[in-house]
Design a protein that fits this description.
It comes from Actinomycetospora atypica. Belongs to the glucosamine/galactosamine-6-phosphate isomerase family. 6-phosphogluconolactonase subfamily. Its EC number is 3.1.1.31. One of its GO terms (molecular function) is 6-phosphogluconolactonase activity. InterPro entries: 6-phosphogluconolactonase_DevB, 6PGL, Glc/Gal-6P_isomerase, NagB/RpiA_transferase-like. The structure is a single chain. By secondary structure, the protein is of the alpha/beta class. The chain has one domain: Rossmann fold. Helices cover about 30% and strands about 15% of the residues. It has a 6-stranded parallel β-sheet with strand order 1-9-8-5-2-3. A 3-stranded antiparallel β-sheet has the order 4-7-6. Strand 8, helix 7 and strand 9 form a beta-alpha-beta unit. Helix 1 packs across helix 2. The longest helix has 23 residues. The two termini are about 15 Å apart. The protein binds the ligand O=C1O[C@H](COP(=O)(O)O)[C@@H](O)[C@H](O)[C@H]1O.
Length: about 260
């Protein structure tokens, strides 16, 4: 696997603005090529700031939002609408402010018990939620085209990371980082709260055409530096992120400090 393309910017505001501008361009290009664009969203401070920058952009409506399929790379398994949920944060930052088609927005299950584990309906069981999302992805792969088996070839997958090297909700040397056969997993006992989550695996993330890691601040520098210097994905899961066509790290100077 060749190394990522690294884009280093002065600060988090610049990362959010550059990421927003590049995301709008990528979605436009995907729509020009394939009619419908697909994006996998991330949570995290800079991931949500980037969505706010998309919403504030003068170019926001250069994308046909009704023809964007929206997925999530990971989710906190807490009640629907909880402010800790990545989807709740993404809706407030962007999705409630553009003309997305609700049928094309695919959140992961919440912990609110629901009648079934289909589509994005909710479940008291994160394993059922993970299975339901795997089914959502299989159906989407049939519509959008497949990257790895059963997973769409997403146009862009956005990911954040933590100081210990986690990405999505895949933590170092956790069961999820070893779950190479699955596309979606339930994650328990996360060192970072909330402890229960649902996540794409690294193998599923690699189904995307483009994978963009967005990270800012000095706390991320050591993990990024270790990945850049050859650490494996079991030790530093973000090292396992790669797109089939492009892998890009969008960083500020502090996060890039140990590359
Ligand atoms: O818990 C999570 O954390 C990471 C990074 O968050 P940050 O606030 O330190 O940038 C995020 O990428 C992930 O989606 C999220 O669930």
């Amino acid at each position: 696997m060749s190394g990522p393309e690294v884009v280093t910017l002065p600060d988090d505001e610049a990362v959010a603005a550059e990421g927003a501008s590049r995301l709008l361009a990528a979605l436009r290009e995907a729509q020009a090529a394939r009619g419908v664009a697909s994006v996998v969203l991330t949570g995290g401070g800079i991931g949500i700031a980037m969505l706010e920058a998309v919403a504030a952009s003068a170019d926001r409506d250069s994308v046909d939002w009704s023809a964007v399929e929206v997925f999530w790379g990971d989710e906190r398994f807490v009640p629907a609408g909880d402010a800790e949920r990545n989807d709740a944060q993404a809706r407030a930052a962007l999705l409630d402010r553009v003309d997305v088609d609700p049928a094309r927005v695919h959140p992961m299950a919440s912990s609110t018990p629901g009648p079934s584990a289909l589509e994005s309906e909710d479940s008291a069981d994160p394993d059922a939620g993970a299975e339901a999302y795997a089914q959502v992805l299989t159906e989407a792969a049939a519509r959008l085209g497949e990257g790895v088996p059963g997973i769409p070839a997403f146009d862009v997958l956005l990911a954040g990371c933590g100081p210990e090297g986690h990405t999505l909700s895949i933590f170092p040397d956790s069961p999820a980082v070893h779950a190479t056969a699955a596309g979606v997993v339930a994650v328990r006992d996360c060192p970072k709260p909330p402890p229960t989550r649902i996540s794409l695996t690294l193998a599923a993330a690699r189904s995307a055409r483009e994978v963009w890691l967005v990270a800012t601040g000095p706390g991320k520098a050591e993990a990024l530096g270790k990945a850049a210097h050859g650490a494996g994905e079991v030790e530093i899961p973000l090292a396992g992120l790669a797109g089939s066509e492009r892998t890009m790290w969008l960083l500020d100077r502090e996060a890039a400090g140990q590359l």
